[in-house]
Predict the structure.
Amino acid sequence: MNNINKALSLTLTALVSTAAVADDKNTNEFSFGGRVEAQGFLTDSHYSDEFTARLHGQGKYQLNDAITAVGKVELESIFPNSSSNRNLEDYTRYAYAGVETAYGALTYGTQDNAVTYLTDFTDMAEVYSGYTNTHIAASDDRAKDTLLYSVTKGDFKFNASANFEESEKGGGVMVAYQLRPDVEVSAGYATTEATDFFSDSSEVYMLGARYTKDSFLLSGLVQKGSVFDDDFNAVDAFASYGFGENTVSLSYNYLSADARKNLDVNFLAFEYGRYFGGVALYTGYKVALGTDTSALVRENADEFMFGARYAF
């Protein structure tokens, strides 16, 4: 493992800086890790499963007193089950480099969007959350060819991003403010000129808030705008409580598009997880609240799931 860490550290240093590794290793921060995860789903009597593996490495290299170079790479592989016809799928979750200064951080590559900080208010469940912001490139969790600027000053945080991928140009901004130690509010805007599958424009306005007290979390996110030139509105809500090595959570995901009913989402989900060391065991049940509960539309079908994960 020490040899792997050393090799990855040198690779990341080359990625974020042309300077050689300094003799004083205390000025550098490098880490390497990963996870393996297996999940099973029983969707209206139809069973499916999925196995994934991730590897990541990230590092910081202090160029001088004012500038620190940063970089991160995370790869994921999805292994098909015995009944699947698809091949092994590999993709890059993160691959970016940039700098941190007293005036904020500037990074470029495959990474979070500006509004990801806001959508993470409610995207906290193991499985059943974050379903309402995946159709707009600039508001999705991550995007390719993205320039991200982020700065935090006291209780105030500001993010701005621009997406330069050929088929999904756009961008977004986000502001967040810590009203009290246990209350944070945020607002954001994201727009995409085109998508992989449609040439129509999309945009979304967001308002979010979260309350944290000890091991209790309550958060909400409201979205309104257009997706593929069709008006939509969405509401996410999430609550969780942790006790000892256990966590229980409740998620609500709702999205309604005027004309594109195939994008609609409407469900309530319960989850339970047990966490000890690098091991997580979890299970949950999703109750479809919409009229379409067929297994062909997974977001709107009753579903039981279970999973196990080991992180290192």
